[in-house]
Design brief:
Length: 487
């Protein structure tokens, strides 16, 4: 076989459960996580004959909100369809989904791969219902219908990702945007977000898509998505280099064996025998409603990143870290808003959050909603440093106390007596005592070892429990050593 260099061609279908109170087509609670099996059910989600579905308007709104965030076109007409296939977790023998007239089409999302911006086209964002959940115990299988008919939004990309890293970045970006919008938790441990990857290879010098692709179903973690995509690309390349043919099929992922496995031949659209859902009306989407939803969109991650770098002058890294999670970004914005009145620089606030706050959060394994430090108190702490009330070392001690108790920094400074000593006469007296108590070090300095001055400054800071003004401490030690050298 010729030494052909292959390029991955990958598209993703992302399924995200929506944060609605009720299910997609009935009034059952959609908050089924942790509930006993088959307790959030009714004739509609059980697929009972004669039970009629009703459309959840909030789910439609959330799907349009998401589509607008992905720059999609919103048509004036949409409808629901029956997707027919027989599987035990599909109670009716068909799934209510959308086929030829979805709620949106032709969007995109931007990812940044190694400093290069890449646009990944989104073919459509549409709405469907989730299925029931199968459990396999020994030789028996059980069905929990609680999940059946929960609103499920499907985001379908074009096959425009050409590396595993691009897949990872795209999946992370989708979840980030969904969380900013508040439409989905993106909690993969609870099954709120799942991936299906369509994977093929082509010679790197061509642009044509392969007619044969493999779909890997139900990847329920980022680790599974990355591992399965990596494995499948390697598997297909081995087959091609051995002169074989990659079969078009649907595969599953076995975490324990770290490999894909064949489930069935890959279906095409005609295999599902789509036809319009006769029990639901088509949707006429008013332009005024779409614009109302558009106007209510929050500041999204890309916009927030641009504001933090351009307006506040933050580095690309700090802006990325601060905008990664909606809650962290909101915390930073509150800290900046409160810090403005105290003259606290947005960069300084960023440094405290990405430095001391994140360090303590990592140590304690806390999420931002468990943090006791009020964002307004960060600006107050910076102001205490800027005015010379405390030095930076004391400020770090104060911050740790703030993290433990949630108390205001000024109260902690007063309680612990951490006010910075900036009185020249007081520090001069302490400096003289430090030199007298460390005569050996002083003699080494006078003998030419000038670096010993740092040790003496450290002793002064120790004598004042870190409260000495660092600049003044340096100046006084230097002056007194200079005097001794002249003597």
């Amino acid at each position: 076989m010729p030494n052909i260099e292959y390029e991955p061609v990958i598209g993703l279908e992302v399924h995200a459960q929506l944060n609605t109170a009720s299910k997609m087509f009935c009034a059952c609670s959609a908050d089924y996580a942790g509930a006993p099996p088959n307790t959030h059910v009714c004739p509609v989600c059980l697929g009972a004959p004669g039970a009629l579905p009703l459309i959840n308007q909030r789910a439609v709104e959330y799907t349009i909100r998401t589509a607008l965030a992905f720059h999609c076109e919103i048509p004036e007409y949409a409808k629901f369809d029956r997707k027919n296939y027989h599987y035990p977790d599909l109670m009716k023998g068909y799934q209510i989904s959308q086929y030829d007239f979805p709620l949106s089409r032709n969007g995109y999302v931007l990812i940044n791969d190694a400093g290069a911006e890449q646009r990944i086209a989104i073919r459509r964002v549409h709405l469907e219902e989730d299925t029931a959940k199968l459990f396999h115990v020994d030789d028996s299988s059980f069905i929990d219908v609680n999940r059946s008919s929960v609103p499920l939004m499907e985001i379908v990309s074009e096959p425009e990702m050409h590396s595993v890293e691009a897949v990872r970045l795209y999946a992370l970006k989708l979840r980030q945007i969904l969380r900013y919008l508040g439409v989905s938790s993106g909690d993969m441990e609870k099954g709120a977000m799942r991936f299906e990857a369509n994977i093929s290879l082509r010679p790197r010098d061509t642009t044509e898509l392969s007619k044969t692709r493999v779909e890997i179903k139900n990847l329920n973690s980022f680790r599974a998505l990355i591992s399965a995509t990596t494995f499948e690309l390697e598997r297909q390349e081995k087959i091609r280099r051995a002169g074989g043919i990659v079969e078009q099929e649907t595969m599953g992922w076995d975490d324990a064996r770290n490999s894909t496995y064949s489930q069935r031949s890959k279906e095409e659209a005609h295999d599902y025998r789509y036809f319009p859902e006769p029990d639901l009306p088509s949707l006429s989407i008013a332009r005024a409603w779409v614009e109302e939803i558009r106007a209510a969109l929050p500041e999204l991650p890309d916009e927030k990143y641009a504001r933090l770098t351009r307006t506040f002058g933050l580095s690309a890294y700090d802006a990325s870290v601060l905008t990664a999670e909606k809650e962290i970004a909101a915390y930073y914005d509150r800290a900046v808003a409160a810090g403005n009145a105290r003259g606290a620089d947005p960069k300084a606030i960023s440094n405290w959050i990405t430095g001391e706050l994140f360090r303590l959060m990592n140590e304690k394994r806390d999420e931002i909603d468990a943090v006791k430090v009020a964002p307004e108190h960060i600006g107050e702490l910076i102001a205490l440093v800027n005015t010379g009330t405390i030095n930076i070392n004391s400020a770090k001690k104060v911050f740790e106390a703030m993290y433990a108790s949630g108390a205001a920094p000024r109260a902690i400074v007063a309680e612990q007596g951490l006010t910075q000593i900036s009185d020249r006469a007081v520090l001069a007296e302490i400096a003289a005592r430090v030199l007298a108590e460390n005569d050996k070090a002083v003699q080494e300095y006078l003998g030419g070892k000038e670096t010993i001055a740092k040790f003496l400054i450290g002793q002064l800071m120790k004598a004042t429990k870190g409260q000495a003004n660092p600049a003044l401490a340096n100046e006084l030690i230097a002056e007194k050593l200079k005097e001794l050298k002249k003597a």
